[in-house]
Amino acid sequence: MSQGSVSFKDVTVDFTQEEWQQLDSAQKALYRDVMLENYCHFVSVGFHMTKPDMIRKLEQGKELWTTGRIFPSRSYLGESV
User: Fold this and answer.
1) pTM
2) Which residues of 24-47 are buried (b: 16+ CB within 10 A; e: fewer)?
3) What is the pLDDT of residues 3-47, one digit of tens each?
4) Predicted local confidence at residue 9, as pLDDT
């Protein structure tokens, strides 16, 4: 059985502001760790992409919220909307 390639979009999760606010600090830390680890795995196997803003923000411990979703457009994945 052939499996298609995986994109960074396939391994990302975004939350509504309400969903994000319901997470406790341990859950938010787990999210941060998993997203950064996923990005590192993609880079380590040769996936070439500009570092997404959300990864920069996670690395710097900055707030992810700018609008109604953590990621207001799919452009953070290198896609046009």
Assistant:
1) 0.71
2) eeeeeeebbeebeebbeebeeeee
3) 778 888 888 888 888 888 888 999 999 999 999 999 999 889 888
4) 83
Q: How do residues 60-81 score in pLDDT, each as one tens digit?
A: 988 776 555 555 444 445 443 3
**Of 2, 22, 1, 14, the residue nearest 73 (C-alpha):** 14
Nearest to 69 by CA among 11, 7, 19: 19
What the block records as the tokens of 73 is 């457009």
Q: Which of 2, 4, 31, 26 is nearest to 15 (CA)?
A: 31
